[in-house]
Design brief:
single chain; alpha+beta; 7-stranded mixed beta sheet; two-stranded antiparallel sheet; 3 helices
């Protein structure tokens, strides 16, 4: 059986207390913006497309480059590759999906890493841990960008 491949973005924004990450809710499930990679589509391009389609964000900056982490296989072998990007926007749109005739998600929320761990499924906690470790590492004095 061939695994399903998806790509997404851990969207981050700087706030006075550090960093917040964007979570989207569909029914009772919280997740990062993500979706299936189209045939022949680059995973990063798919991740950026899905984030734009699901949130309306067009200002995502890949300040951490093309680094990514993948989930363990779940739900019939599905694997999601996550990248990290920063936005300056606080307000998120939940655009209407042409396929569904309604937004894909019911709610959005900016949360701390700890809050994300509480809301997300256990399979995504390693992604939160990775994202938090990257931003904390970059905040160390020897890694501050000029």
């Amino acid at each position: 059986m061939k695994s399903k491949r998806s790509a997404g973005i851990v969207v981050l924004r700087r706030v006075a207390m550090g960093w917040q990450t964007l979570l989207l809710r569909a029914f009772r499930n919280w997740d990062f913006p993500k979706g299936l990679i189209a045939p022949g589509e680059d995973p990063l391009a798919a991740a950026l497309r899905e984030a734009r389609e699901e949130t309306g964000l067009t200002d995502l900056t890949l300040i951490w480059g093309h680094a990514f982490r993948e989930t363990e296989p779940y739900a019939g072998g599905k694997i999601v590759r996550f990248y990290m990007a920063e936005t300056g926007n606080e307000r998120i749109e939940l655009p209407v999906s042409l396929e569904l005739g309604r937004p894909e998600h019911h709610e959005w929320r900016w949360v701390s890493f700890d809050q994300a761990r509480e809301l997300l499924a256990p399979r995504l906690r390693s992604i939160v841990d990775w994202a938090e470790s990257v931003v904390r590492r970059d905040a160390e004095p020897s890694n501050v960008r000029s």
